[in-house]
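User: quick one, sequence for these tokens?
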């Protein structure tokens, strides 16, 4: 497995390049090792540093910190979801457990940006669950029921309202929920890297090749060095399976997204100068599409089983074409060639869309698998797995542990066959919404 940095993602390209990169080159020993420096690993490192100011904490990443999925996502910090992976369970008790976790996720990110005065284009504008199909009104009405029972503010909207708010005639029905936040994921995760406490040593471009438990330690081998650690936290999300972690409970999925350049004044006027907005599709494989604060359009309309991890430029070009069509369907008046970048990112899924948060051995811990809610839930789970690994308990841990646990997955080749078949089925069901 090889994970490399690339320059394809607009969110990352918006940031100043970093210069303080250290690569692991020697043998090291530490009290704590965290593998993976995305939202989960960075948050775990911050919390461990607070809890153990005099202990040595090492954080490693195979690429530049934060530049995996944590910078490559669509930037929705969610309070509610309609579709979660492939599942859309609206059973009230389970939905409440999920929403309780989302709420804690929003709180923890909010606390971070307040404490460090982070500018990440935070906008509490909520989000839309939308469809071009009138018949999807039924799905939204059922969802309305769940939201009302749980006290989430929401609003059903028709084509006329949507055209005004979104600048497109494409959607015929939508539910707006008030509580979600739109943000710039690259800026948020970069702030988490920049504010790592001093007792955290960060090594980047340092891929963990293999690991084993030896007596009370875990021995980890990298290309040019090794780390012998007392405790380890795996925070590699889409790469958990490739490291042999909870292999029968999670699998990686590759998503691709595209972002346009900023619309010109004329182009922006032609779509009615809408305020920033974010749409999630009512159908699981439909497009996520967003108008950013600086008038760029982001679209994500693919999810697939894809190996190896790095997608070649020609493969990305094929997805970019689909995304261009997706934008054109919604905004026929815009020029064809406004996509500025197309990138891929790896996420992790479980069968029942439940997250992993676990002690898997005396000194081995793991957190991951958040579907479309990793910004908040990853930050929360990172912090709380650090607390759990320090043998402490919190109300947050109780809330997390009250969720349904991930269910067992069949072995290969049945797993890939099952996932691919399901993805094809969902893609067909969502074809009008891509
Ligand atoms: C296109 C796209 C859109 C998305 N949209 C949203 C959204 O709108 N809202 C939302 O909340 N979530 C969204 N997500 C999901 C979200 O990005 C993830 O849930 C979140 O980034 C998970 O954070 P993490 O820290 O657990 O994992 P990651 O950010 O994936 O970090 C894991 C890190 O582990 C490192 N790693 C892996 N293997 C090794 C190894 N062997 N050695 C060392 N390091 C290793 C990787 O390099 C990576 O940096 C989206 C994801 C994608 C790809």
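Assistant:
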């Amino acid at each position: 497995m090889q994970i490399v940095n690339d320059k394809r993602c607009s969110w990352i390209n918006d940031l100043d390049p970093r210069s303080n990169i250290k690569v692991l080159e020697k043998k090291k020993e530490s009290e704590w090792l965290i593998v993976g420096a995305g939202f989960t690993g960075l948050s775990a490192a911050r919390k461990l540093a607070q809890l153990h100011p005099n202990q040595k904490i090492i954080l490693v990443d195979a690429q530049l910190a934060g530049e995996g999925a944590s910078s490559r996502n669509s930037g929705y910090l969610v309070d509610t979801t309609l579709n979660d992976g492939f599942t859309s369970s609206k059973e009230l008790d389970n939905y409440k457990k999920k929403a309780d976790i989302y709420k804690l996720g929003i709180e923890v990110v909010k606390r971070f940006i307040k404490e460090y005065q982070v500018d990440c284009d935070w906008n509490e504008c909520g989000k839309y669950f939308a469809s071009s199909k009138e018949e999807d009104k039924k799905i939204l009405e059922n969802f309305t029921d769940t939201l009302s029972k749980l006290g989430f503010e929401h609003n059903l909207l028709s084509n006329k309202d949507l055209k005004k708010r979104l600048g497109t005639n494409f959607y015929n029905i939508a539910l707006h929920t008030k509580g979600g936040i739109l943000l710039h994921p690259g800026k948020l995760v970069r702030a988490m890297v920049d504010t790592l406490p001093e007792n955290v040593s960060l090594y980047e471009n340092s891929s963990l090749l293999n690991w084993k438990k030896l007596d009370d330690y875990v021995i980890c081998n990298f290309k040019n060095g090794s780390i012998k650690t007392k405790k380890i936290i795996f925070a590699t999300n889409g790469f958990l399976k490739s490291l042999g972690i909870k292999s029968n409970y999670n699998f990686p999925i590759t998503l691709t997204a595209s972002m346009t350049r900023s619309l010109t004044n004329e182009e922006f006027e032609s779509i009615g100068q809408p305020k920033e907005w974010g749409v999630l599709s009512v159908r699981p494989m439909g497009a996520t599409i967003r108008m950013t604060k600086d008038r760029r359009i982001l679209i994500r309309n693919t999810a697939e089983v894809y190996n190896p991890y790095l997608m070649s430029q020609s493969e990305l070009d094929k997805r970019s074409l689909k995304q261009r069509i997706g934008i054109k369907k919604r905004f026929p008046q815009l020029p064809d060639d406004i996509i500025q970048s197309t990138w891929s990112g790896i996420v992790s899924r479980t069968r029942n869309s439940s997250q992993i948060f676990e002690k898997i051995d005396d000194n081995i811990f793991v957190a991951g698998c958040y579907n479309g809610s990793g910004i908040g839930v990853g930050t929360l789970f990172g912090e709380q797995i650090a607390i759990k690994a320090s043998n402490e308990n919190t109300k947050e841990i109780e809330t997390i542990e009250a969720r349904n646990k991930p269910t067992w997955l069949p072995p290969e080749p049945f797993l890939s066959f099952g996932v691919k078949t399901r993805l094809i089925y969902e893609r067909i069901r969502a074809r009008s919404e891509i």
